[in-house]
Design goal:
Elements: H1 2-19, E1 23-26, E2 31-35, E3 52-54, E4 76-85, E5 93-98, E6 104-109, E7 112-118, E8 124-127, E9 136-145, E10 169-174, E11 177-179, E12 189-196, E13 200-211, E14 217-226, E15 232-242, E16 247-251, E17 255-258, E18 271-279, E19 285-293, E20 298-301, E21 305-308, E22 311-312, E23 315-319, H2 333-345, E24 350-353, H3 360-369, E25 372-376, H4 387-403, E26 410-417, H5 428-452, E27 457-462, H6 466-471, E28 480-484, H7 496-507, E29 512-517, E30 526-528, H8 538-553, E31 558-563, E32 569-575, E33 579-582, H9 595-604, E34 610-612, E35 619-623, E36 631-639, E37 643-648, E38 651-657, E39 662-669, E40 672-682, E41 685-698, E42 711-715, E43 720-724, E44 729-733, E45 742-745, E46 748-749, E47 751-753, E48 758-760, H10 772-776, E49 779-780, E50 784-787, E51 792-800, E52 829-834, E53 837-843, H11 845-849, E54 855-863, E55 869-877, E56 881-882, E57 884-889
Parallel strand pairs: 23-24, 23-31, 24-25, 25-26, 26-27, 27-28, 28-29, 29-31, 35-41, 42-44
Antiparallel strand pairs: 1-10, 2-3, 2-4, 4-9, 5-8, 5-10, 6-7, 6-9, 11-13, 12-13, 13-16, 13-17, 14-15, 14-18, 18-19, 20-21, 21-22, 30-43, 32-33, 34-36, 36-39, 37-38, 37-40, 40-41, 42-57, 43-44, 45-50, 46-49, 47-48, 49-56, 50-55, 51-54, 51-57, 52-53, 52-55
Helix pairs in contact: 2-3, 4-5
The structure holds (2S,3S,4S,5R)-3,4,5-trihydroxy-6-oxo-oxane-2-carboxylic acid and calcium ion.
Length: 891
């Protein structure tokens, strides 16, 4: 009797275990981590007690942007964890699944090597069934390396290659007879929709099935299509025999759905497909996976652009990088989700998932929000002429396609971004061979993707050297040409943009065209009322984007565009207004919205909008310029209403017509707090927006008692305004000295030569500060800086950085890779006196501090006898310079 009971219980347990569904959970927390290669780190004997404890998502480079050492750690590192695995999972299939780790991984379990993966942006998994110990602790040891590898793309790129296990890691347990997990970390299910129209759709489902038991298995495969409410719409089934150890493919019959509800930008309706396998005899459920199903049809036309479900839609959106302020690329899901929400809120309907496949939640969000996507592998800037490089690229393409195959949002697969930006040769046989090899890689990728997935389009993105791409035949290969265009930024003439579009339309007749990138650098803390190229001001951002959007809208043959970029992102080698950051985002590293974001939101939104711009300009300042002792500065108010009224401190400034999505108001600011209130009427809705701005008013006459002098903060050689957001200090532009007032005497604004023309100031990284803009402009040949301040004691801070280097900077191709180690060998020496007293006699910045290093000297000066302050510069060798000055009244 007892024996029977045992058998009964045993059967019950086995039966229960078999009927149990897939179990999937993350194992992110509490890993031991160290950089380097400790001896036998995969073995239990290795002592990891002194290692750091970290959580995944994790990168070891998130702090690298903040330090001054050029570059970032690129090398090996280890993660280790003891993990208890439940006894109840014994006898099941076990898999460890990585959403992504940069860039080479070797995985060890309980001391044994299990598998490896190359490439930092695609998902991968390993079967660990035979290595696990159940009801015990298991030693997981993961080697990750982000060192340069000539055979793994990307070789170089304008973003930081943050190393680490920077996306979620999971354990999965399932029945040994299951939907395959060994096909490039895909879901094992591939859903195709060979025909879709308004009246009917047909669906075809391919399922990969694995039998990892020692016996043959007879199973039933079911595919149940449910609507969004979970109601069954259609069901198919098939019976299949699997030999022991076999993985087999089942292809469903075509499933017809009548009057389908389509997936569209405005109504991203999703059916769900439940793929199940059951034990044929017992009917028990063995495994199940769920995939989204979007029914839609689309096409790109070289003249008329993009069509979704028969309707013409211009695709407008952004590209996106997967990093965040001080976090590097190690983002939890919510931060990814937020980005797609930001894009949707802006009115975008397109995401270029570039330069690499991204977190699964990004794709899920695009499916849910109706955002069309293009996903690309990270073959960027250059290739290595080896078979291994080619093979790795092809593998990445397969991973990409199979992993995001079922996403209704995906309509384009991309590969190769600006592949000739960093050509290793410029002429001759070597260049020819290089072109030929690159073409070979391109053709292999094109063929792979088309074979994997003939239902989507292919795309490649080029930089503005069409000749290179034509010579190598790359303009012919993909179905869509993407052009990355920066006229009015890297190149001087903004109107060249539309000429290039028209040229491409003419030269590449029949090719579908997209603008895959365009955008200017915008430091959220910089403003200018004389905006110009390379000044990084919010205002130039508006000038640029207004122009580009208008020109693209005029041209139906431009199927769509993805501005560069949704967010500011880290790029270690970059030297712009913010060190190591590419500032072309319409939102910042911390996702604060810049004015250009509001511009797009207003232009693209169909809902009534009214937003006072300059929203994040919290510490603002300026010089009195009205008889009423106010400072007039213009403020944009974004709206899609016809006209807008603005009140300032409860007084109306009247109504203004909106042009190009905003109205500019001349706002008279008073010192202290100002209340701005905008109102407008759009259709039936009354719109209202408010903004409080703190304004630091500077007198034009410094002895004016109505505006007691407290401080001025002036950037020389510059019309820019800059906010020191840490200390809430408002920096204002220079002006020429007039008696009673303040300003410079003599000199000119420093302009640096660029690859094309010149720019105001410099964009080199200034060492020793995180406030580059204060140091990046200067007055050269300055004689004096005078301020007719009242008697008292003052702190006078002088700011310098030597911007001139004798070594010619690297040619400014997209100003990447400029090195910060240059030394200044030239000579500039001058003396400085304050109200007649010599404070420095032989001041040579390069000699004492080197090139591009922030130097701040504070002097305490007493102003007497109503003489004001005069800082005088005495030329000895070269021209005296001054980058900025702060005059602060102590008493
Ligand atoms: C490009 C690249 C992108 C850069 C961008 C820029 O063309 O494709 O990776 O970040 O230009 O800002 O220079
Ligand atoms: Ca994730």
């Amino acid at each position: 009797m007892k024996k029977f009971l045992y058998i009964f219980i045993l059967l019950f347990i086995v039966g229960w275990a078999q009927a149990q569904q897939r179990v999937v959970y993350t194992i992110n927390d509490g890993w031991k981590f160290t950089k380097g290669s400790p001896f036998e780190a995969q073995l239990a004997g290795c002592d990891d007690s002194s290692w750091e404890t970290v959580n995944i998502p994790h990168t070891w480079n998130n702090k690298d942007a903040d330090d001054e050492t050029p570059g970032f750690y690129r090398g090996p590192a280890w993660y280790r964890k003891q993990l208890f695995v439940d006894k109840s999972q014994e006898g099941r299939q076990a898999v460890i699944y990585f959403e992504g780790a940069n860039q080479e991984v070797r995985f060890y379990l309980n001391g044994q090597f299990v598998g490896e993966h190359k490439g930092g942006y695609t998902r991968f998994c390993f079967d660990i069934t035979s290595h696990l110990r159940y009801g015990q602790e298991n030693l997981f040891a993961i080697y990750v390396n982000n060192v340069y590898n000539p055979n793994i793309p990307p070789l170089s790129a304008d973003f930081t290659f943050f190393g680490g296990i920077y996306r979620d890691v999971y354990l999965q347990f399932m029945n040994p007879v299951h939907i395959a997990t060994n096909d490039y970390a895909s879901s094992g299910v591939y859903i195709r929709t060979p025909e879709v129209n308004n009246s009917a759709a047909s669906v075809e489902i391919t399922t990969l099935l694995t039998n990892n038991t020692l016996q043959p298995a007879e199973i039933r495969v079911e595919n149940v299509i449910c609507d969004a409410d979970g109601k069954e719409v259609k069901k198919t089934h098939a019976e299949i025999k699997l030999a022991s150890g076999e993985t087999k493919t089942d292809i469903s019959k075509k499933i017809k759905i009548d009057s389908p509800r389509l997936w569209d930008i405005d109504d991203p309706y999703r059916y769900m497909v439940y793929t199940r396998i059951l034990d044929k005899k017992k009917g028990t459920l063995l495994d199940e996976v769920v995939n989204p199903l979007g029914l839609r049809w689309f096409k790109f036309d070289s003249e008329k652009g993009f069509f979704l479900n028969g309707k013409g839609r211009k695709l407008i959106g952004t590209a996106r990088h997967q990093d965040y302020f001080q976090k590097g690329n190690a983002l939890r899901d919510e931060l990814h989700v937020q980005d797609v929400l930001l894009l949707k809120e802006m009115g975008g309907n397109f995401l270029r998932v570039s330069h690499y496949p991204q977190d699964p939640v990004i794709m899920e969000m695009c499916d849910k929000l109706g955002i069309v996507t293009s996903v690309e592998i990270s073959v960027v800037n250059a290739v290595t002429e080896t078979e291994e490089f080619l093979q790795n690229s092809v593998e990445m393409a397969k991973e990409m396609v199979r992993q995001d195959f079922n996403r209704p949002s995906v309509m384009i697969w991309g590969y190769m971004n600006e592949i000739f930006l960093r050509r290793p040769y410029t002429e001759g046989k070597q260049l020819e061979d290089y072109y030929r090899f690159t073409e070979k890689v391109a053709r292999a990728l094109e063929a792979t993707i088309r074979e994997e997935d003939p239902s989507r389009y292919t795309m490649m993105a080029y930089h503005n050297m069409p000749q290179y791409y034509e010579d190598a035949h790359l303009t012919e290969i993909p179905m869509i040409q993407g052009w990355n265009l920066y006229q009015g930024w890297y190149e001087p003439d903004i109107n060249e943009f539309q000429r290039l579009l028209d040229r491409a339309h003419k030269v590449y007749k029949g090719k579908v065209l997209m603008v895959t990138e365009y955008g200017p650098g915008v430091d959220p803390g910089l403003h200018s009322y004389q905006p110009e190229r390379f000044d990084f001001s919010q205002e130039y951002g508006l000038v640029y984007h207004k122009h580009y959007l208008r020109e693209m809208m005029k041209r139906p043959f431009i199927a769509g565009s993805s501005l560069w970029n949704l967010n500011d992102f880290y790029s270690e080698s970059r030297v712009d207004a913010v060190p190591h950051v590419n500032n072309k985002g319409v939102v910042g590293l911390n996702r604060e919205k810049k004015d250009v974001y509001w511009f797009y939101k207003t232009a693209l939104s169909r809902r009534p909008i009214l937003v006072i711009g300059n929203r994040e300009w919290k510490s603002r300042g300026g010089v009195v310029n009205t008889a009423q002792k106010e400072c007039i500065q213009s403020v944009p108010v974004f709206s899609n209403a016809e006209e807008v009224e603005l009140f300032v401190n409860n007084k109306s400034l009247g109504k203004k017509k909106v042009e190009d999505n905003y109205a500019l108001f001349d706002v008279p600011f008073v010192g202290g707090e100002n209340l701005l209130e905008a109102v407008a009427v759009a259709g039936d809705s009354k719109l209202r927006d408010m903004l409080r701005i703190q304004f630091q008013l500077v007198g034009s006459q410094l002895k004016d008692e109505a505006i007691p002098f407290t401080e001025i903060n002036v950037m020389l050689g510059s019309p820019r305004y800059f906010e020191d957001r840490t200390a809430n200090v408002a920096w204002i532009p220079e002006q020429e000295y007039k008696p009673g007032s303040w300003g410079f005497v003599g000199g000119t604004s420093y302009r640096r030569k660029t690859g094309f023309g010149s720019m105001l100031g410099s964009d080199i990284d200034i060492l020793g500060t995180d406030m580059n803009p204060i140091f990046q402009t200067q007055r050269v040949g300055i004689k004096s800086f005078k301020a007719d301040v009242p008697n008292g004691e003052y702190s006078v801070y002088l700011y310098w950085a030597e911007l001139e280097s004798d070594k010619e900077r690297e040619a400014l191709v997209y100003n990447l890779g400029a090195d910060s180690e240059q030394t200044f060998a030239g000579n500039r020496s001058f003396g400085i006196s304050m109200n007649g007293t010599t404070v420095l006699d032989d001041f040579n910045i390069a000699r004492d501090y080197g090139y591009a290093r922030a130097v701040i000297k504070k002097f305490v000066v007493t102003v007497k006898d109503g003489k004001g302050l005069s800082v005088d510069f005495h030329k000895k060798e070269g021209e005296p310079i001054l980058n900025a000055i702060r005059i602060y009244r102590n008493y």
